[in-house]
Amino acid sequence: LAATAASCGDSSPSGESSLSPGTSGSPSGSTRYVAPNGADTNAGTKQAPWATIGAALEKAAAGETILVADGRYETAIRTERAATADAPITVQAASGARPVIRPTGEDAVIAVGGQAAHLIFDGLTFEGATGESSANIYIAGAASDITFRHCVSRGSARQGFFSERTTARVRIDSCSFANNGGSGPDNQDHNLYVEG
Known about the structure:
Order of helices and strands: EHEEEEEEEEEEEEEEE
Radius of gyration: 15 Å
Mean pLDDT: 86
């Protein structure tokens, strides 16, 4: 695990966001789009975006960048998607956007598991996981080469970030973890908990 102490903050964005490619995606891959007013039956284009990040991860090709428009997303993300070292899949906030993923009544806002590999999450806010074993960001199984950068994790009932000992090469870069935990037994809630 590589982590940096720099915080990306948690202020709300203002104004409309532009859906233009950022700088952290694969330069050789194409760009796909997600927006709150989209539909998962759409083509994932700028004019016909998908509605959920989970569907976008399943439909995007290795090497593609998924730009996420400003707004609140109420569907939890569950993925076992594997890309490659040469062609990772990047899920990134659109230019000027600060998308918030806050599902209702979910124990994990994002769960990355199975053989998931070479996924990058950039500029997203994960918040509000609830339940006895909750975590905003949960990495499990044999997931490897998973990167979170410029992300925020806040307001989870138990854990802000939790990775199992079976995972490998999970990177956290310039993220902020705040106000997570407090509903569990003493000393068992954490902003950031990493095993393995």
